[in-house]
Amino acid sequence: MAVLLRGSRCLVGKWHNHVNAVQVSIRSMASKTQVGFIGLGNMGNPMAKNLMKHGYPVIASDVFPESCKELQELGAQILDNPADVADKADRIITMLPSSPNVIDVYTGPNGILKKVKKGSLLIDSSTIDPAVSKEMAVAAEKMGAVFMDAPVSGGVGAATSGKLTFMVGGPEAEFNATKELLTCMGANVVYCGQVGTGQAAKICNNMLLAIGMIGTAETMNLGIRLGLDPKLLAKILNMSSGRCWSSDTYNPVPGVMEGVPSANNYQGGFGTTLMAKDLGLAQNTATNTKTPVPLGSLAHQIYRMMCARGYASKDFSAVFQFLRDEEGQ
Questions:
Q1: Under a CB-based contact definition with an 8 Å cutoff, are residues 106 and 112 in contact?
Q2: Are residues 176 and 63 in the same domain?
């Protein structure tokens, strides 16, 4: 009898383990419900692709229909506007160029909030004014939805390889659900605090990035004028205290590195217009908080000048070429 009981317990234990495994499997499959994605530009397109690679069915929309073709061929469902996406999906990611775009996509006539479902999770990965993120969070809350700001760092390369860094602001209770999706597209997902803090972190990062890129471009240009080979100078910088991301990963001098915009006539990458926009956000927040940012202010002026002189569509590392042109070379 004891042997039979032990055998029964063993069978029951195995059955429970099997049931638990099935339940976990079902939860895993259930979590792969369709995800809405709005904004299929240079960043949004590879991000949406990575969601699909991880098994998430994607429902997408973009103001430019041609931006949707590639994703549609991969199996994504394409809808006419953000409201239609919100009608079909209760988890939506937006990746848009600016604050006005975000306001329109969320609260416009065909915006997400027109048809959003209660309990929906709305994740905005655009880089915008923190105040706008807070406004969108309030508007979403009125409709029973949750808004998280989750801007990114890493550029098109990291978006393609799924190695972005996400800076997340919003209710902490929603962070795990947000992270589940963002880890499909990024290597680092960092919780920063309440709504708007993700944007604050991103604005600070991009101000430093712009200052660093200008400094690298000036340094490389000076070294070249002094007769140094640019590859040698970059090598020395990158083994010395002047090393930074702009010198060792994204060098602005043509011929120094492969696979970066400077090797492709500054095409692709992170546009000068967008950098000028982000520096404008930094200036606004610095003014509002009475924070002195003299180098940030100069960087903003330089990138605005670049936009006015024909560099608007080029990668922001084209500041090197801008400086060369300024000196008549």
A1: yes
A2: yes
Own/partner pairs, 45-52, CB within 8 angstroms, 24+ separation: 45/70, 45/71, 46/156, 46/159, 46/160, 47/93, 47/95, 47/125, 47/159, 47/164, 47/185, 48/76, 48/93, 49/74, 50/159, 50/162, 50/184, 50/185, 51/93, 51/181, 51/184, 51/185, 52/76
Angle between helices 272-288 and 197-225 (to 10 degrees): 120
Identify whether residues 314 and 265 lie together within a single domain.
yes
Q: Which domain holds residue 45?
A: 32-194
- pTM, 2 dp: 0.84
Straight-line distance from the first to the last Cα atom of the chain, in angstroms, rounded to the nearest whole number: 96
Give the Cα separation of 298 and 320 in Å (integer). Answer: 16
3-state helix, strand, coil in the chain (%, to 5): 60, 10, 30
Residue at 3 is within a domain = no
Per residue in 310-325, pLDDT (tens digit) is 999 999 999 999 999 9
Residues recorded for the chain: 329
Q: Which two tokens stand for residue 265?
A: 């006539």
Judge whether 240 lies within some domain.
Answer: yes
Mark whether 88 and 160 lie in a shared domain: yes
Residues 225 and 306 in one domain: yes
Strands 58-61 and 77-78: parallel
CATH number of the domain where residue 41 is located: 3.40.50.720
In one letter, which amino acid is 291? Answer: T
Active site residue 290: no
C-alpha 297: how far from its chain's center? 24
Catalytic residue among 32, 142, 202, 277: 202
pLDDT score of 329: 54
Residue 220 CB coordination number (10 Å): 23
